[in-house]
Amino acid sequence: MIETRESPSDPVSLWWLVVLFGVVTFGVGVFFVVSPHETLKVFTVVAGIFLLVDGLLAIIGAIVGVGESRGLLAMVGVLSAIAGLVLIKKPFDSLVVLTLIVGVWFVVAGVVRLVSAFSLEGSRAAYILTAAIDLIAGIVILSWPEIGLATFAVVVGIVLILRGGLFIYAGWVLRSLEHAS
Predict the structure, then answer these.
(1) Which region holds residue 67: left if phi is over 0, alpha if psi is between -120 and 50, else beta?
(2) Which burial class, exposed, middle or buried, applies to 98 when counting CB atoms under 10 A from its CB (0-12, 13-18, 19+)?
(3) Residues 105, 150: Cα–Cα separation, whole Å
(4) What residue spans define the domains of the chain?
C-alpha cells in the first residue's frame, strides 16, 4: 500500500484555506473601517455572510482537526452559521439587534477559542491572541449600548483586520509545516 503525505483529513494540507479566509477577513475589516457610513442593511448582510463562512470553516476544522477541543469548535461553528443565516435572512433595521448578535458572538467565540488554545500542543500564542481580541471586542460592543453605526463598523473592522492578519500568519505556519514534513 502506498501512503501519500497529503490526505484530506490532514489539517496541515488545508493551509491555503486558512490563508484565503485570512485575506477575506482582512478585506471585510478594511471595508468596515473605510466605509463606516454604509447602510445598516449592508453591514448586517456582510456580517451575516462573514459569520456563515466562519461557522462553516469552524465546522470543517472540527471535522478534520485533532485535539480535545473539536466539539467546542464545532459548537462555535454551528452558532456562527446560525447567527450568519439569521443576519442574512432578516437584515434588521435596528443597530441594537446587530450589535447584540455580533457582541455575543465575539464573546462566545473568544471564550471557546481561549479554552481550545489550552488543549493544543505547541505554540498557542496566536489562538490566545485571537481569543483575547474577540473577547475584548465583544465586551466593548456589549458594554456600549448607544454605539453608533460608524463606531460599531470601525470597531468590528479593526477586529477583523487583526483576525485576518492572524489567520494569514497561521496559514503560512501550516504551509511551512507541510513543506517541512
Answers:
(1) left
(2) buried
(3) 19
(4) 13-180
Identify the CA nearest to 175 among candidates 44, 53, 15, 38.
15
Cβ-contact 43, 32 below 8 angstroms: yes
Question: Residues near 136 by Cβ (< 8 Å), separated by ≥ 6?
Answer: 110
Q: List Cβ neighbours of 39 (8 Å cut-off, separation of 6 or more).
A: none
- Nearest Cα to Cα of residue 111 among 65, 73, 57: 73
Contact predicate 120/102, CB 8 Å: no
Q: Which residues contact 24 (CB under 8 A, 6 or more apart)?
A: 53, 164
pLDDT at site 58: 87
Q: Per-10-residue mean pLDDT for the chain, 181 residues long?
A: 47 82 93 86 88 90 78 89 88 80 91 83 80 93 87 92 91 82 69
Polymer length in residues for the chain:
181
